[in-house]
Amino acid sequence: MNKSILTLAILFTFGLLSFGQVTDPLISKCATNAGANCRYLKDFRIQLGKASTQSELRYKANMSLWKNTRYRFTMCNADNSKGQLILSIKDESNKQILSSFDKKTGKIYPFIDFECQKSGIYQISYDFNNWQQGSGVGVVSMVK
Amino acid sequence: MTERIFILLIIVFIGFSCRNSKSKSAEFVFPQSDSVPVSEAEKLSPEAIADISKNISSPVEIANLLQKLQVPFSQNYLAESIDANKQSTNFDKALKLGILGADLGYLNMYEKTGSSLDVLSSIRKISEDIKVGQFFDFESIKRLSKNRSNLDSLLFISIDSYNKIDNYLRSNDRGQLSALMIIGVWIEGQFLATQVVNQFPDKMLIDRIGEQKIILNDLLLLISPYCNRDPEFTSLCKDMQDIKEKYHDIRITYTQGEPVSVEKDGGLTIKQTETSVVTMSKEQLNGVIEITKNIRDRLILNN
Question: Which of A113, B9, B223, B255 could bridge across to B269 with cysteines, CB 3.0–4.6 Å?
Answer without folding.
Answer: A113
